[in-house]
Amino acid sequence: MEKVDLHRHLEGAIRPQTALDLGKQTGTFPQDMTLEQFAASTLVLSPMPLMDVLSRFDDMRRPIASYDAVQRISRETVEDAIAEGLTALNFRFSPMTLAPAAGVSVQDVFQAVHAGIDEALEKAPELCVERLAIVSRGRGVEKAWKLVHELEAGAAEGMDGVDFASDEIRYSTGTFHDVAQALDAMGLPLTVHTGEGVGPEAIRETLALPGLQRISHALSLVEDEDLVQEVLERDLLVEVSPSSNLYTTLVEHPSKHPARVMIERGIRVVICTDDPTLFGIDLAHEWDIAQTYLGMTESMLQRSQQWAKDALFASL
Ligand SMILES: [Zn+2]
Predict the structure, then answer these.
(1) pTM above 0.90, yes or no
(2) CA 242 / ligand 1 centre spacing (Å)
C-alpha cells in the first residue's frame, strides 16, 4: 500500500534533538537544557490554545539560524520520512520566514532546502518529494508578492507548487486572489490552509482562487451545503490532520472531527501529519485515529492513499 504524507511542514518536522543542539549553539536555549525539558517547554504533546501552539512552532524554528541549519533540517526531514517508510512526502516550507531567521537570501533558502532534500534522496531515490513554497498570509500581501518575484527570478526551478498558510482571520484568503493568479500563470498549482479556525466564508474565498488543486483542514466546510456540493463536483481533495486539529483545540475529540462527515458525504479526504515532531506523531498514528474515530476502513484508507499519490503536484 502507498504511504503518502500529503501535508508536512519542514518547520514542524525538525528533530527535537537537532532543534535543541542548534539552539544551544545559537544561545536560543540554555546549555544545560535536557531533551526532556526541551520537549516539555517546546513540543505540543497535549491540547493547548492555537496561539500557544504557534508560539511553540516559532520556538522550534528559532535555532534555524544559518544556511547549513536549513540544509540540515531539510536533509533530516527527508531521512525521517524514508525511515518512516513513506513512498511520497509533501515537503512545504516558508522561504520568507526562514530567510531572515537564517540570515541568508530567499534564493539561498531554496538552494539550501534542495541541497538537503537531494542529499537524503541519494540513499532513497525512489521516494517522491513534492516541494511547496508557503505564502504566509500573516506576513501580508506585500511579502506574498515578494515571494512571487523570487519564484519568477529563478526560485520556481525545482518547485512543484505553492501553499497558502497561517493567519486566515486577519488576512483573508480573498486578499491573495491576484497572487494566486500570478502563480497560476507561472504554472504553479496551489493548495490552501482554509476554514481551520474560521467559518465557511473563508473556504468560499479559497474555492474562487485560480490554480487551486487541494485544500487543507477545511473544518467548517460541512457547515455549508453549497460548499460541500462544490467540493464534490470539483472532486477537490481535502488534506486532514486530526492530531493537529485536536492539539490546537479546534476539535475537542477525534469522534467529533468534521472529517467524519466529509467522509460520509463522499468527499475525498487524505490523512496527513501537518507537524509530526511538534506534535510527537507520525502518519501511522494519524491513520489509527482515522480508523478508530473517523469511520475509515482499511480499504478506504488504501483508496485514499491512492488519491494522495495521484494528487501530488510532483507528478503533474
Ligand atoms: Zn499545515
Answers:
(1) yes
(2) 11
